[in-house]
Structures are given as C-alpha cells and as structure tokens.
Amino acid sequence: MKLDYLQALKRVDKARGAWIMYGQEPLLEQNLLDAFRKSWSRQEVERQRYDLTSVSDWKQVFNALDSLSLFSQHLAVEVHGNTKPDANTLKLLKQYIQHNEHNLLLIVMPKQDANSLKSSFFQTVEANGVVVQLSANYPKDRQRILVIEADQLGIQLDQDAWLWLEQHHEHNLLAAKNSLMRVADTFPDQQQIKIEHLFECLQDQSRYNSFDLSDAVLAGNFAQSVKILNYLLEAGEAPSLILWTISKEMRLLMQLYEQPQNALQLGIWKTKIANYQQALRRLNPQTFLLWPELLLRIDASIKGLSQENPEHLIQQAIALLCGKSLFDFAP
After folding, report:
1. Where is the DNA polymerase III delta N-terminal domain (predicted)?
2. Could you tell me the pTM of the whole model?
3. Percentage of the chain surpassing pLDDT 90?
C-alpha cells in the first residue's frame, strides 16, 4: 500500500508489520517519526533503533523482531539507512511479514530513484505493508501540510500570506515552519496573519537582500543588480546562496518560456508574473542554451574545483539575465 504523508499520520497508532518511509523532506520525516514515538510511548511499545552500514546488519534487525524482552508484548524496530536486504535477508523479511502481526518494522530511507522503487525489497513491502513517500511536490500539498503546522501554533494565514511564504522559501518546508514559529512569536496576539506581518517579521533587515537581486535582474536593471550583488558579497552573503537565487530565476524563465500559460503551476507568485513576462520579452531565448553550463561553472568555482573567479562568473550570469554580456562565454 502506498500512502502520502498526511494519510500516514492518520494510521500511526495502528501501524504494524513493515513500513518504509523515504524522501528528502526533513520536516515530514521528523514529524512522522515524532508521531510514531509518541504513539509507542502511549501504547507501551518497546522501541529499538538500528543504523544500517552493511547488509549483514539486517540480521540483527530480524533477530530483534524475533525476540521480545520480558517486559513488553509489542516491539517497534526503527531502522535508518540506505542499505537494502540481499536475497537471503529478503527471505527473512517475507517470513517476518507473514508470521508477525503485532510488531512494527519501520524503515527510514533517503530519496530513492525509480530503479530502487522497482526492487524486490520495495515491491515486497508495498504488497504486504506500507510505503510512504515523504514529499510535497505541489504548492497546494505544501500549504496543506503547513496549515496543520500553523494550526498547532494557533495562527491562520491569509491566502496572499501563504503565497508570500511559498515564494520566500520555495520548496523548503522546514524553513517555512521555522518562519511560522517566528511570526507566531513576534505577534503573539495576532491570530490572523497577513502578508504585512510576514514581510515585517521575515524580510532581511539589511539594506539589500536576495529578493531585491531577483527584482533587479527581472527588470533588466544591470547597474542596480551589480550594486546589490556587491552589497551582498560585502555583507558576507554566501556565494552559494546568491547562486541559488540566480539559478532559480533562470530555471523559472526557461520553464515559463516553454509553458507560458502555466506561471502559477510553476510556482511564480501571482504579483510577479508580469515581471517574468517582461523579462522574457527582453531576453533572446538563444542565450538560455548558455545558462546551464554557466551555472555549473559557478558551482564548481565556489567549491574550489576550478581556477575561475566565482564573483566574475556570477556577474556574467547576472548580465545574461539582464540581457547583456560582460565577456565572451567560453567553457
């Protein structure tokens, strides 16, 4: 059986057999683990944890599932790692699923590729247990999850405030939750949060920030963009974060060029659509072919994997976004 995060939360108390949780959303993983651990505590279920480093570690897991302590009737074994069972251990998994109806084997794994999801291991658990993908790929899914977080904090957000929060954090649910906690602490008597509250609470208090850089490059204002870039670098902004801002804008512009009617579905804030459309009218689509390689060069230079100057390359990327070129592009 496949479940999403919210469906899995509702089944925690009755979870038995074998479950796999996988993905790269730390907020969802931690919330679901917390829910399991609280449930086990309430039901007086014994909990054991194993971190897998090799295939042989699986034998310890199944030995534990076969031997309850004298002080408990039910056992939850929490397994962390990305090591899948081999053929022999897979037999032990199948035997456990067939003969053990009272204990829980909870396997926590990172994001998996398509081939891994088609493996005998995943197929066995999906057919006889539960597989939970810890992801929220669409804005409406992320908002549903964050609404629960906001409710727990005793606040509600206007729709414009939700859109701003989504734009501010893009796909980072954990950072979005931290922002909800911050705004709830900043305005303890305010249950209905408006966009002004978020802006006042979360907007960077420095003279310029990454949002200013995004606005400047979308407007094609090269002089202002370089001015903001220099300020951010002097203020100690990590080049990797500046690269993230630039790559986000490049990605959205390329996607909007291919899908001009799907701005909202691409995650572009409603009030910013006109800015992106204006930028596309100014830019030559042929330059889009240069962007991916330039971004890779910037990333390599930031990591010290090349001799190129990352600040110079970042300036070139900003120039291209503004419809200009500082120097010949040479890989």
Report:
1. 20-133
2. 0.60
3. 41
